Structure formats: C-alpha cells, structure tokens
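Appendix B.2, paired examples.
Example (i):
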Amino acid sequence: QEMRATVRVSDGPHNTTATIHITVRDVNDNLPKIILPNNIVEIPENATVGSQVITVGANDNDVTQNKNFLFYLSPTPSGHFAINSSTGELTVLQPFNRQEQTNYNVTISVSDNSAPPKMSSAILQVIITDINVAPKFVKALYTFNVRETADIGFVMGRVRAVDPDLGPSGEVRYSLQHGNDAGKFDIDPVSGEISLREKLDFENGGPSYSLIVKASDNYFEPKSTTARVTVTVVDVVEAPQWPNTLPVVVLTSGQRCSALQLAARPQNLLQLTSSSAATGVVYSLLNYADSFSVNATSGILQPKGQLATGVYHLQLRACSTADTTVCADTMLTVEVAASDVIAFCPPFYTVFVDESVDTGHVIMDLNSTKGDSDIRYSLTDNSDHAAFAVDRLTGVITVVGKLDRETTALYTLTVMAVDGLTQESSTA
C-alpha cells in the first residue's frame, strides 16, 4: 500500500514544499488456513490406487502470500495417502484392508511462500467403508388389492428391500420408476409404503396397474434394484350417476312426448351400451304416482292422462341392478302450461360418438316444439361444452375440439332455446 504526504517549510518571507512517498510493505503475520470441504470423508475399501479422496484448498490474509501454497502430509505409519503439493488433491497411495483398520486420521499441512514460511495443519478423518452391494427386494413381485372406494392417502401395502452394507451404504430409499404416469400413487422413500395419491376408478381408470419400484442405497455412487408391483382395483357397486343438471321439462296440458326417457349412467359398466336406455339401472318414481309413471327398465317417464297446469317436482331414483339398495336420487321439474309454449320434446337425449371423429362432426339437430323460426339456441354455462358448440339459429350441435375417452368418457350438455318473440325459454 502506498501513501503520499506534502511537507511545507517557511522562514517568513520564503517557503518551499516537498512530496514524500511512503510505501507500506506487507509483513507475513498471518497463518495460511486450510479449507476442507468436509472434515470426515468415506471411501470404499476397494478404492484403487490413485483414486481421489478429497481436494484441499487454502487461503491467506497476507497480500503477497496468497499464491503458490505448498501442501504436504505429516508422516503416517500406514502411508496409505498422498497429496499433490500444488493442487491439494488427496489420493489413495496403497490399497486398504478394512478388517485391519476402519479409519485414518490424516494430518494435512499447508505453508505459504514467504521466507521464512508460515504453516498450519488440519486433521481429516477418512473412514473406510464396506464394498457397496446393491439392496435386494424381499420379493420380486408384490400384489395389492385396493377397493375403488378407497380414500386418498390409503396405504395399500409396503415393499421391502434389505442391504447388508453398514452405515449410509446400507440405508435404502424407495421410488416409483415406471407405471405411475397418471400420478395416482405415492411411495414413502424410507418405509416403502405405497399409498393412493388420487382416487381409483375401476370403470374409467382400468382394473389394474403395473408399477416398477426402485430401491437405492445411500452410497455416493448408489446401487439399486427393482421389483414389480401389481395393483388390482376391486370393483365396488356404485350408485348410478344422474346428469349434473336436469333440464326443466315444459309441457302443455294436452301435449305428450314420444319418448320422455330418463338416463342415469351405471358406473359399474366399463362402457355404456347403445340400447335405448342404459343397462344396469332400475328406475322408480317416489312421488306424483297418480300423475306420472316411469318404466323401471327403460326409464321412460309418461304422464297418466290429462295433466293439471302447474309445476311438478318429481323425485326420481336410479338404483344399480347389481345391488338395488345402492341408489342415487334426483329431482326433475315438469312445468305444465295451459297454452302452447316452447319446449323440447323429448327433453332428454343420449348420443354415442367415437373419440376419433373430426372437428365439425354433427352430433344431432335439436328442434323445439316451435321449430327453428325465431328460436335462438345456446349452451348454458353449466355444460361441459369446451369440445362442443350449438348453432344458435339451427340447433345443430357439432364437435369443435378433440375428444379423448381416456380423459373424459361422458359429457353432459344443457341446451337452452329462447323464443325471440315471446322471450319464453326451455332447456334440454
């Protein structure tokens, strides 16, 4: 470091100045310091001669002594290690025999390049570990049965692998390698317990899953092994599923629909049939038995004779044919008017479509009791209509997006028709 001072001399009438330059020279008054990434390291007993153990660093607070450090080892009886005097890389000099000695305290020293040099030392503990072997599963195949009604977090079973190595090399960690693309399962990395991350569905998700579980040890160069896990989804009788929203059925007192057919989806079938009504469902009417009747098999709802004007809130029940005690209820509103009103007849439609259809494919052409003149059609906000559209003038429903049965197997659309002259509306 350099400093400068100006000196001024005066005898009264005369004066003069001089500049003094002062250079402060660094004195080697600081010890170099050894930098160890870790004070304890582990290496396997089969480490070959020349294998790297660790690289040591150093620093020095003195300005001129921060370069060209000299690293060396204090003599040890074993002589199993060597250090590069310039880079500080500690390497294996002789093979190990863990049965004779399991650890070494290596004294590493560093000196700076001053004269005379200053030095410091640190002790590195080197632990010799067993030769790492891969963990081994107790079984090569695990089979778990899980009811489809099992809750999220349900533990379906546990896999187990053992590792004879000592210390971290014998600590086993588990992970799911393959078969969990949908993210339905979790595995505890320590215990090996496999649990549900999402609900299972026998009908939509499939009856079984095949997983590959990996067990790895905690070695710095880990070894691993795998096992197969088969998860069988046990089908449970579930209540049929009504559409999320049922339309309001509008009739006149003298009007009869040709097929006022209800449709509740049986959840215990892998796919819906193309019959006029979904098989696997038993229908019943819980009230207004004097005014309406429902066919238990087909789901066709019919009025009994002339209906009085007014609003009827029909309580409907759909039960599984596999277990008629497993049911789902819903309410259907039927409005009977004295005069001619806009309505869909029938108000329920079931359409089957292939997932491979192109955009623009026509699903169906809806018509109200007043035809298409002055009628405007639209999909209500509560419809699953991202993949569909309805022509506002003609009532033609088309596909506007890609369909994927594996992602969505059932859509419920609610279409509203509004009479532009009377502003009357109806839904289907």
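Example (ii):
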Amino acid sequence: MSDWSDKLSFREFTDFLERLVKSPKKTRFKNIEKFLVYCRKRVSDNLKEGGRKMDKEKDSLFPVMRFFLPGLDKERGAYNMKETVIASLYIEFLQLGKNSDDA
C-alpha cells in the first residue's frame, strides 16, 4: 500500500496554492484548514481502502506540512543555492533563452 500523499498530484496541490494566493487574506487560514481536512480525509480513505491500521510514516500529514513550513523542515538540509543559481537552473531546464523576457 502506498503513502496517501503519493495520490495527491502536484497539480492538485499547486491549484490549491493558486486559489489560496487569489483568495482574500481574511479567508486564507480557513482555506488552509479546509485543505488539511481534505488531506486527513484522504488519509482516512487510504486506510479504509487498505484495511489496515494507521502507520506513522505512511499516514502523516508531514509531506504536505513541509511545504507550508519549510523553515521548520529539519529532515532535509538546506540546498545552499542562491536565487541566481536556481534561476539559471530553471532557465536551462525550461530551455529559455538567457535574454528572453521569460528568463
């Protein structure tokens, strides 16, 4: 049985983040709360589907929470890359011209 977060697509997560950014600041906390409730439901559904008991490793919200609180994520070390290095990697990966407007 796979981790529940394997079934949460990157697009699904980024769509949530897009809606969050566009939402009024007053509702953002509530929207995050709704998303986490949705994630908990997915954990529960995954448990029922597999007919098993909860596993701290596979059934944790930690994979999602590390995106919300990157400064507190001690499991992974810092990448130690400056923004310009990351930008260069994006430009190369996306095959953009170095002098293009998109770069």
